[in-house]
Amino acid sequence: MRFDDLVIPDTPACRGALELAGRYHSPSLLNHSIRAYLWAAAYAQDNDIAFDAELLYVSAMLHDLGLVAEFDSHTVPFEEAGGHVAWAFAAGAGWSPERRSRAAEVIIRHMWDEVPVAEDPEGHLLELSTGMDISGRRTDEIPAEVRREVLERYPRLEIAKEFAVCISEQGTRKPESIAGRFVAGGVLDRIARNPLDA
Q1: What's the CA gap between 47 and 38, in Å, rounded?
Q2: What pTM, to 2 d.p., does this model score?
Q3: What's the distance, CA 87 to chain centroid?
């Protein structure tokens, strides 16, 4: 498998989601969002998982918007805030109410410990790929050549340092959230040891 073998959807909603992510994310968070989609697409292809490429791409681009100041919420976890943004974005894109809710659901579930692939392939793939990119979990399951090409095209920049600050801040303000549980469980050490940064 090579980078050019990956399914990268090109629809108005996908282009809009990329533009929205580019407008509000730092370069590091934007590249992380793009890599999250690419790791997911590569894993799906290698493991024969059928998925809705547009839904996954839009969800990947918007999954961390709840971390940025403009969309941060002091009352709900960042993944739920991001889900609300995705629902509103999808409404503007003309998606059905069911499809809008799916985008929000996929984003909320990316913070779960595990999402069953049979129940929610897009949620499963985003949960897996974001974990790969942030903590390096199961990165060996992405073909080495694809890893090399993705990291060349979308370098990691300061994602480890930046995300560690974001998740720590979320965990401090919202200790009952999944982010709070991750921080208490040692996610900062896993971020620091991510093999993608070696």
Answers
A1: 14
A2: 0.96
A3: 16
**How far, in Å, CA of 106 to CA of 54, rounded?**
12
Q: What angle do CA 113, 115, 118 make, to 5 degrees?
A: 160
Name the DSSP letter for residue 92: H
Alpha carbon 67 to chain centroid, angstroms: 12
> How far is Cα 87 from Cα 74, in angstroms, rounded to an integer?
19
Q: What is the pLDDT along the chain (198 residues), one digit of tens a residue?
A: 899 999 999 999 999 999 999 999 999 999 999 999 999 999 999 999 999 999 999 999 999 999 999 999 989 999 999 999 999 999 999 999 999 999 999 999 999 999 999 999 999 999 999 999 999 999 999 999 999 999 999 999 999 999 999 999 999 999 999 999 999 999 999 999 999 998
Asked if residue 58 lies in contact with residue 90, where contact means CB atoms within 8 angstroms, the answer is: yes
Distance between CA atoms of residues 75 and 37, nearest Å: 28
**Do residues 179 and 170 make contact, with C-beta atoms less than 8 angstroms apart?**
yes
**187 class by beta-carbon count within 10 Å (0-12 exposed, 13-18 middle, 19+ buried):** buried
